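step=encode ok
step=design start
structure_in=
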């Protein structure tokens, strides 16, 4: 062999295998093939084994014996321990005692000249390390495991026999890839994660999880205690067949970093609606959007309420709102005994129609009573026309509130959604583009609003040593635990937007040519976050209604939802004025939101579009009257 199969240790007077169990036997055998006459024996922490024979080698001693020997002569050991935490701990201890740790490569292993292997790792029979692959220290590349080109494996990980890692895969530290498991190219597996035997991993896996099945899905978090340790070598329960898995409209998508912040909050005892993560979340958020102030609260609705409360409405004061929105944009107007007036959508953007808004403001101004505010929504991730809106509202001196709950990550004229108007509302509900399970943020550049909102959100407590209140307050604060989740989520915002936009592109590429199917247009002034992909279904041309599609997809366990039912049609807002409404009504009767979560897999997307096309097939079997 040209390559050295064994690192250093040749000058050691005693060469041992640490660990006399099953894995230790395999390591001893590999060592004997590259160093005839070696090892000199085993060392094992279990004193009961001392003196016994394993293969043809003697177990020479235990821990105390090893430390004593190491103090009088040079010793080298090969790591024969399967458990990765024990392996790491003992390797570190041995190094601290001046013992050399051998790197062992079986003579039949095929190692590219550009591959690197960290100290203390073992590469066993018929394993392949392909070009430019990198194995960290103390790791195991077990029998016949294949490590493709450019794979990176962290320290103390274990690739079990016959496992395959495709090109460019990255595996963290102390992770276990089970017998025969396959990690598809470029997938990233976090630290301390366990992949069950036979799993096929198509998507990145977070740290500290246990995953199994085809495709691999997360079964649970990894246990602290070591009962998981050998799971990579045995079959984990297969998750229920994925074919019937429910595909949700917009489920939460964790980054794998949330738990670090949450554990920090617990470790530092900041388990309260105040704390360092709340402060940092606000600061990081304000900076990302370019706002002077960001006030973290318990929901988007709470943020909207605080802004509306600050207006100090008199009963009957009007507030203009988009009619195509979620009720939470408008409910706070009713909390404050105002009268919402609903403005129709612009068919080009689905957002508030600026011409209708201006006409209605003109009419109100002539009657001498303009509304107290305009609430405009960035619908489904698309910004409203903020330059036009600002100009109109300025000319009537009406404050403008931006409901950006659906549009975090979108832009308008290169500026972030949520940076327009007087007050900005964000939501981190579980279905939004990033989530804290529930939570929200009120943004503003108006310091007086920020101060007042903070005070109202904390029970309107006046400065005094006791609890003193001169106003009715609310308990709207965000927990420091959830702020920790929010910080991790915020860090992934750009990726989440990219994923949702590419999901939209996929749907449009596959379904865009269907007769009667059209997509929410993207206004030329900005970039839509595509929080949800929305289609309009013209039943005459498509041959089925949006309800036919929704019910058919539901039967396939795929969640979709009609577009927002306009506020002027909602029983709760009966009697409220509305200006126009036909555009929003058509969006409601024809519109369907398709599953749009950033964690959708190619397989999920295939399932969705093939279910969509079976509606089509059924439609073409039915006799649809031909319209002239
Ligand atoms: C989600 C949403 C809200 C409310 O946010 P919550 O955090 O759920 O209270 C407000 N407005 C719109 C348009 C939304 O979609």
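sequence_out=
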């Amino acid at each position: 062999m040209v390559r050295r199969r064994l690192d250093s240790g040749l000058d050691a007077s005693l060469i041992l295998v640490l660990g006399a169990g099953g894995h230790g036997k395999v390591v001893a055998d590999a060592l004997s093939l590259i160093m005839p006459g070696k090892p000199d024996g085993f060392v094992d922490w279990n004193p009961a084994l001392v003196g016994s024979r394993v293969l043809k080698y003697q177990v020479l001693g235990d821990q105390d014996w090893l430390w004593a020997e190491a103090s009088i002569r040079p010793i080298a050991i090969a790591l024969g321990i399967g458990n990765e935490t024990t392996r790491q701990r003992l390797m570190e201890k041995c190094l601290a005692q001046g013992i050399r740790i051998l790197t062992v490569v079986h003579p039949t292993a095929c190692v590219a000249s550009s591959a690197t292997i960290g100290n203390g790792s073992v590469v066993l029979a018929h394993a392949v390390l392909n070009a430019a692959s990198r194995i960290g220290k103390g790791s195991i590349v077990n029998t016949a495991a294949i490590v493709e080109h450019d794979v990176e494996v962290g320290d103390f990980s274990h690739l079990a026999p016959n496992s395959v890692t495709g090109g460019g895969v990255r595996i963290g530290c102390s992770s276990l890839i089970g017998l025969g498991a396959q990690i598809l190219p470029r997938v990233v597996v976090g630290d301390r994660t366990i992949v069950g035997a036979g799993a096929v991993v198509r998507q990145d896996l977070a740290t500290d999880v246990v995953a199994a099945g085809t495709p691999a899905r997360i079964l649970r978090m990894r246990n602290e205690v070591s009962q998981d340790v050998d799971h990579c070598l045995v079959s984990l329960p297969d998750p229920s067949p994925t074919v019937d898995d429910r595909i949700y409209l917009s489920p939460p998508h964790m980054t794998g970093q949330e738990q670090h912040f949450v554990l920090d909050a617990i470790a530092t005892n900041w388990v309260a609606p105040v704390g360092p993560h709340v402060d940092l979340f606000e600061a990081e958020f304000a900076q990302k959007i370019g706002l002077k102030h960001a006030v973290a609260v318990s929901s988007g609705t709470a943020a909207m309420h605080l802004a509306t409360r600050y207006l100090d409405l008199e009963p009957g004061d009007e507030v203009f709102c988009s009619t195509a929105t979620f009720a939470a944009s408008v409910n706070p107007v009713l909390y404050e005994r105002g009268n919402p007036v609903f403005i129709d959508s612009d068919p080009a953007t689905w957002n508030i129609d600026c011409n209708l808004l201006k006409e209605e403001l003109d009419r109100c101004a002539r009657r001498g009573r303009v509304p107290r505010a305009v609430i405009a929504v960035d619908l489904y991730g698309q910004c409203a026309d903020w330059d036009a809106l600002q100009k109109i509202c300025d000319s009537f001196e009406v404050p403008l509130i931006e409901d950006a709950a659906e549009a975090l990550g979108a832009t308008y004229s290169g500026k972030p959604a949520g940076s327009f108007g007087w007050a900005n509302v964000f939501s981190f509900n579980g279905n939004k583009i990033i989530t804290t399970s529930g939570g929200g943020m009120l943004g503003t550049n108006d310091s007086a609003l920020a101060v007042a909102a903070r005070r109202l959100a904390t029970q309107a407590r006046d400065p005094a040593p006791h609890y003193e209140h001169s106003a009715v307050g609310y308990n709207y604060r965000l927990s420091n635990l959830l702020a920790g989740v929010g910080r991790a989520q915020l860090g992934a915002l750009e990726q989440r937007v990219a994923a949702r936009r590419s999901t939209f592109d996929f749907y449009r590429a596959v379904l865009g040519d269907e007769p009667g199917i059209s997509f929410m247009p993207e206004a030329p002034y900005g970039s839509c976050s595509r929080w949800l992909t929305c289609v309009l279904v013209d039943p005459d041309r498509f041959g089925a209604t949006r309800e036919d599609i929704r019910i058919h997809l539901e039967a396939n366990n795929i969640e979709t939802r009609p577009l927002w039912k306009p506020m002027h049609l909602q029983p709760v807002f009966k009697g409220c004025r509305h200006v126009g409404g036909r555009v929003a009504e058509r969006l409601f009767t024809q519109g369907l939101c398709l599953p749009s979560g950033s964690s959708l897999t190619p397989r999920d997307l295939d399932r969705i579009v093939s279910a969509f096309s079976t509606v089509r097939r059924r439609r073409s079997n039915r006799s649809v009257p031909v319209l002239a």
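step=design ok
step=annotate ok -> The longest helix spans residues 602-621.
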